Amino acid sequence: MSFSWFTSRAFLLDRRLLWLLFVCNGLGTAYGYVWYGSQLRWTLDHHPLWRIVFVPDSPTASLFFTNWLLLVLARPARENGAYRVFRIAVEALAVLTLVKYGIWAVVMNAAQGLQGDPLDWQNWMLIASHAAMAVEGLLYARFMRFGRIAALLALAWMLLNDSMDYGVGIYPWLPTVLEDDLPVIAPFTFALSAASYLAALAALRLRPAGETGA
Q1: pTM of whole model > 0.70?
Q2: Other C-beta atoms within 10 Å of 52: how many?
Q3: Can you tell me whether residue 146 is helix, strand or coil?
Q4: Eight-class DSSP state of 153
Q5: Of 7-11, 46-50, 69-73, 103-107, the least confident
Q6: Strand ranges (DSSP E) for the chain?
Q7: Where are the alpha helices (DSSP H) in the chain?
Q8: For residue 26, is pLDDT > 90?
Q9: CA-CA distances (angstroms) from residue 180 to 89, 112, 134, 184?
Q10: Cα-flanking dihedrals φ and ψ of residue 172, to 5°?
């Protein structure tokens, strides 16, 4: 069995694999919101309620992908316009945010270790799971229906999220060793939003004709 089979349509869209990914991503999403629990409570105590949506980044990214998996697994016999718009929005947000926050978390955890703060099992778990998020986004983009306009709107949402994070101070809490690197982390995060958009466009350009419609 060649490596290319593991990136094939037959393998990636096998319903058994999709259900496995649905369960894994669903559990990861729930864990991610629990992980953000203290920051969510702090935000509710110190900020207007509406800002809460900008706090949990990675779990929201995996939530978008989990929703897409459910849409594929339980696709209705007839798709109306509202369904198609919702699905395209979910797809664009899933791919761009998976790539962005997957890479972001890997880099932040690696930076923590490189600055002398030893990495424990949770750090390594976060590195592995977030790297998998980025890979998922790029692997499954070719089976999605969103296009350049939807990707651009998803980029706009991410830039708004970045502006909220670093403009009003609701960015993901950092380990102490990285707090003094905030002047570098903020522009890196904005740049990563743009890079994720470009990665999504590249994935769309590499999408063979007829590969959509999962």
Answers
A1: yes
A2: 16
A3: coil
A4: H
A5: 7-11
A6: none
A7: 9-12, 15-35, 37-46, 58-73, 81-114, 121-140, 148-167, 182-205
A8: yes
A9: 36, 12, 27, 9
A10: -55, 135
